[in-house]
Design a protein that fits this description.
Belongs to the amidinotransferase family. One of its GO terms (molecular function) is amidinotransferase activity. This is Glycine amidinotransferase. The structure is a single chain. This protein has about 350 residues and is of the alpha/beta class. The protein has a single domain, classed as L-arginine/glycine Amidinotransferase, Chain A. It is about 20% helix and about 25% strand. It has a three-stranded mixed sheet, covered by helices on one side. A three-stranded mixed sheet has the order 5-6-7. A three-stranded mixed sheet has the order 10-11-12, covered by helices on one side. The radius of gyration is 19 Å and the shape is globular.
């Protein structure tokens, strides 16, 4: 098998190289229609006021946890790359709106790897419009090493993008929109969550970009990203959030596989006025391979459940998933996994 600098087609093949984000530069952005749509913020809050000492402490502790995570990954033979550190509070604007860059913490949201292709996705939140830029030096390096590099059309994101329905927030279907964390990769099959962070036009764009060898399956299993709701631990074994899903909501190609239902999760709390992730960020896992996964060290019950299914949990400290809006899976992007691009159905 040819060794590519970039190669990953699922979340469970043996991990060889990963990019971890950085909490440095985290800036609470204006509470505009795009942020309120995603986080359901109250109308009266124009901008969150976080004491600087508290923000500095959370960022420092998050970076400490990422350094510890780096050491754990390297001890398992995984190469770890980090992005350029963004300048805090960078402002930018389009012809129709202005915002502030929030962070460069979650490469899983702004980038996807499918085979040897790096894909920059069209994110619907305005404060994340240029989130991929701190990763651009790495992307150029991977491109020079032979990877394909594709960027989706940059969206306009007018206020009409953000629609509130009776039971959910959705994004208009006027232009392709999705976060990469809306995708569940399974070889030649990609499951695309249509939600507040991804629309059907985005799924159509991805299908055409990948070509006829791939199948993009639309699903609607949760309000936004899939990685606090459904994981493929390995072929034949799923991990699912019982508070979000019922068995019939599992995509039909996966319904014959065994499912570990997580009925409760430890709440790690949050530091700021409001959380950027639910307590279910505790099941946001990063797989080292088909039989070993990194798990937040507070999730004792989840680790026990994984062990009983023959999956070894590796506990790691991760204190601020709810404060900053992402867990182990969100803050990482697997660049290279050792395996073949194949069909599982």
């Amino acid at each position: 098998m040819t060794v590519n600098a970039v190669w990953s087609s699922n979340d469970w093949d043996p991990l060889e190289e990963v990019v971890l984000g950085t909490a440095v530069g985290f800036t609470p952005p204006p509470v505009d229609p795009s942020l309120r749509h995603f986080f359901e913020r109250p109308d009266e809050a124009e901008r969150e006021k976080i004491p600087s000492a508290m923000l500095d402490r959370v960022v420092d502790e998050a970076e400490e946890d990422l350094r510890d995570l780096t050491a754990v990954l390297e001890s398992h033979g995984v190469a770890v790359r980090r992005p350029e550190r963004p300048v805090p509070g960078q402002q930018y604007s389009s012809p129709n709106w202005a915002s502030v860059a929030m962070h460069a913490l979650m490469p899983r949201d702004c980038l996807s790897v499918i085979g040897d292709m790096l894909i920059e996705v069209p994110m619907p939140m305005r404060s994340r419009y240029f989130e991929v830029f701190p990763f651009r030096d790495l992307l150029r390096e991977y491109f020079d090493s032979g990877a394909r590099w594709l960027s989706a059309p940059k969206p306009r994101l007018p206020d009409s993008t953000y629609i509130y329905e009776s039971n959910a927030s959705v994004v208009a279907d006027d232009e392709p929109l999705f976060d990469a964390a809306n995708l569940l990769r399974c070889g030649y099959d990609i499951f695309f969550n249509v939600s507040s962070t991804g629309n059907r036009r985005g799924a159509t764009w991805l299908q055409r970009a990948l070509g006829p060898d791939f199948t993009v399956h639309e699903m609607s299993i949760c309000a936004d990203h899939v990685d606090t709701t459904l994981h493929i631990l390995r072929p034949g074994l799923l991990l699912a959030n019982a508070s979000q899903m019922k068995p019939e909501m599992i995509p039909s190609p996966l319904q014959s596989w065994k499912t570990l239902w997580v009925t409760d999760i430890e709440d790690d709390g949050f530091a700021f006025d409001w959380p950027r992730a639910s307590r279910w960020v505790g099941m946001n896992l990063l797989a080292l391979g088909p039989d070993r996964v990194l798990v937040p060290s507070t999730q004792v019950s989840l680790m026990r459940q994984l062990e009983q299914a023959g999956v070894e949990p590796v506990p790691v400290r991760f204190r601020h998933g709810r404060s900053l809006g992402g867990g182990l899976h969100c803050c990482s992007l697997d660049i290279r996994r050792r395996g073949e691009l194949t069909r599982y159905f």
